[in-house]
Design brief:
The chain has about 325 residues and is an alpha/beta fold. GO terms for molecular function: oxidoreductase activity. InterPro entries: FAD/NAD-bd_sf (IPR036188), FAD/NAD-binding_dom (IPR023753), Ferredoxin-NADP_redctase_2 (IPR050097).
Length: about 325
């Protein structure tokens, strides 16, 4: 687009469940909206998606493609742009503030409102085999991936906080022949909460293995993951539970907009529905919540559009008060 006047009612950055849900809600409200999709997704390494009503066991890429196709067939106000947004500016020097987004080739788009639904990305540990098995044997969510590996031995790698004990305890109902937590010689020191968490796991029946892990690999003789240690025999498990850190995928955009963030870099929403510290900018999905699952992302995407509509109404009322527009 060459004009500097806003040509879209809303810009949505992110083509995952949150962004798609926001776009559909806007389309049904007959708003012009463009969805910018970088084609990078947190679950791109997962073979199948689970625990999603009507889509259990479906490939994630087929789910996304089906949703996009459905919206393109029904809503002529929705446009999909498969490109990565590298810059966002909030322009407030005219009659009405708006947003400008730019991709790597310098193309520009302008919209009155902005919904950030750009998701998150995991910071995977630098250990041989981990990346290849992430989402395909090494999992972080039992609701998403645990059922298919039930009845096997469960391994836990990288237990870093007492809060991570909850899914570990839940894994006992899936484990057929036990659960092992790989501590790699963890020194707890004064971390009493972590010591208590391990004590609870052990009392429940977990085993602790303090050996240093050298690598992970697929089991060549069938399903499961093989754990290779610096010393001693390998260990075969049905799956590995792991909880790597993650960060916002669009951290640079969040920073450039000056949005309020928490210590982990994620946007702090100012309302339940996703308003941010910047007027006209809303947040949805993994960008603003610790509950990084499809259902929550979809709900927050719709919620952001509700907040957007409320914001529009407030602007109309304000202009009416100023005598610039009749109700």
């Amino acid at each position: 687009m060459c004009s500097t006047e806003p040509q879209l009612d809303a810009i949505v950055i992110g083509g995952g469940p949150a962004g798609l849900a926001a776009a559909m809600a806007l389309g049904r409200a007959c708003r012009t909206v463009a969805v910018f999709d970088s084609q990078e997704y947190r679950n791109e390494n997962a073979s199948l998606m689970h625990n999603v009503l009507g889509h259990d066991g479906q490939k994630p890429e087929l789910y996304r493609a089906g949703v996009v196709r459905d919206m393109m067939d029904k809503y002529d106000t929705i446009t999909f742009v498969d490109t990565e947004v590298i810059d966002v500016k909030h322009i407030a020097d005219g009659r009405r503030a708006f947003f400008r987004v730019k991709n790597r080739t310098g193309e520009l788009w302008y919209g009155l409102k902005l919904i950030l639904a750009s998701g998150s990305k995991d910071i995977l540990p630098d250990i041989d085999g981990y990346k290849d098995l992430w989402g395909r044997g090494i999992v972080h969510c039992l609701f998403c991936d645990g059922y298919e590996s039930r009845r096997g031995h469960v391994g836990v790698y990288g237990l870093n906080a007492a809060s991570e004990l909850d899914p570990v305890l839940m894994a006992f109902s899936l484990a057929g022949d036990g659960l092992t937590i790989y501590t790699e010689g963890m020194v707890l020191g004064s971390n009493e909460s972590m010591q208590k968490a391990l004590d609870v796991a052990v009392s429940r029946g977990a085993r602790l293995d303090g050996r240093q892990i050298k690598a992970f690999s697929r089991n060549s003789d069938g399903p499961g993951v093989r754990v290779h240690f610096q010393e001693g025999k390998d260990h075969l498990v049905g799956m590995i539970m792991s909880f790597p850190k993650n960060e916002p995928r669009a951290a640079s955009l969040i920073q450039s907009l000056g949005l309020e963030t928490g210590p982990d870099g994620y946007v702090v929403p100012k309302t339940v529905m996703g308003a941010t510290s910047l007027h006209g900018c809303f947040v949805a999905g993994d960008t603003s919540t610790a509950h990084k699952i499809v259902h929550v992302a979809q709900a927050s995407g719709v919620g952001a559009t509700k907040e957007l509509a409320r914001d529009d109404a407030a602007e109309i009322i304000e202009k009416a008060k100023e005598g610039q527009q009749k109700l």
